[in-house]
Design brief:
Number of strands: 9
Shape: globular
Number of helices: 12
CATH class of the domain at 11-225: Alpha Beta
Radius of gyration: 21 Å
Length: 319
């Protein structure tokens, strides 16, 4: 990783790249190599190892030994995927923050293109690029559809777009650090990046550059492959087995985002209307009732009489 004339006075980086990792030896070296290959080099790298039990530590220490701009931190215990991601940001010094999953990969021009967009327009708070989808071997198996965000200056319009039927990518791209410090940490809860995306949109514009500069890996052990109601153990191991209500939680956190945002009351009211529209688009009360049904089944399954009742109910519905 060569130094650059773009590095600012005092050595403070313009971009902080956080790499949260847990047992990532299968893919981590690819991710780190893609950082080292960046054409824009005024960055720092913060690797937060979530008490890995495989060869992750050795990979990280070797990478850090090759470059002074890399900081390797090893957590004494697994603090959960969401907290580990945010821990990287807590240690960041740059004006912009990029959280890179240990199994994803960057095109060499990713930083150059995305950070330039943010530097050119203070009203932009987030920038990502189009992305390829990789399989476990690292082969490209598809390209995600272009879904540019609205460029509206109106917060409620951006909010509607951010919570619409679109992919949630708020934890994948480059975020303006000054804005990220104004909103709550990433919650240790399934799909909490959806709340972040909504809240960021209330502070400014989200941008997707048209080039395909990001490689997202989807494999059997990745977080997105895990059923939503079981994902709590990844978000926070201490809450493994906890009964959750993800549909209720998403609506609640959207509302809290609106209440916190520095927007006029007229915009706040419009945002609450958009939450109502979101609920209708997602099937009205059906997802909320599904949360309740799953919770009841999990509660019954924890007792012997309840398990017997569920077994009888299942047999009766098969005939």
């Amino acid at each position: 990783m060569a130094s650059t004339d773009a590095e600012r006075e005092g050595g403070r980086p313009s971009v902080s790249i956080g790499v949260p990792v847990y047992n990532g030896e299968a893919y981590l070296e690819e991710a780190l190599a893609s950082i080292a290959a960046q054409t824009r080099t005024d960055y720092e790298v913060i690797i937060s190892d979530n008490a890995s039990t495989d060869g992750t530590q050795a990979i990280c220490e070797a990478f850090a030994a090759r470059c002074s701009r890399v900081r390797y931190i090893r957590n004494p215990v697994n603090i959960g995927g969401d907290r580990n991601y945010y821990h990287c940001f807590e240690l960041a010094r740059g004006d912009f923050f990029l959280g890179l999953a240990h199994d994803d990969r960057l095109h060499p021009d990713y930083l150059r293109r995305t950070v330039a967009v943010l530097e050119a327009d203070p009203s932009i708070v987030f920038c990502h690029s189009r992305a390829h989808q990789m399989d476990a071997r690292g082969d490209v198996v598809g390209t995600y559809e272009a879904r540019p965000f609205t460029e509206s200056p109106i917060p409620s319009v951006r909010f509607r777009d951010a919570i619409g039927l679109r992919p949630v990518i708020a934890n994948l791209g480059v975020i303006r650090a000054s804005v990220l410090r104004q909103i709550p940490p990433l919650l240790p809860y399934p799909a909490s990046d959806a709340y972040w995306q909504a809240e960021l949109a209330l502070y400014g514009k989200l941008v997707e550059v048209p080039e395909v500069l990001f490689y997202r890996r989807v494999h059997a052990s990745s977080g997105q492959a895990m059923p939503l109601h079981q994902r709590i153990r990844w978000s926070d191991p201490k809450k493994a087995g906890t009964i959750i209500f993800p549909s209720w939680r998403r609506v609640t956190e959207y509302a809290r985002s609106v209440l916190r945002a520095p927007i006029p009351m007229s915009q706040r009211i419009r945002c609450f209307r958009e939450i109502g529209h979101y609920i209708r688009r997602r099937g009205g009360s059906k997802p909320l009732l599904r949360d309740v049904k799953i919770a009841v089944k999990l509660l019954l399954g924890r007792t012997r009489p309840g398990s017997q009742l569920l077994s009888l109910w299942g047999r009766s519905h098969r005939h």
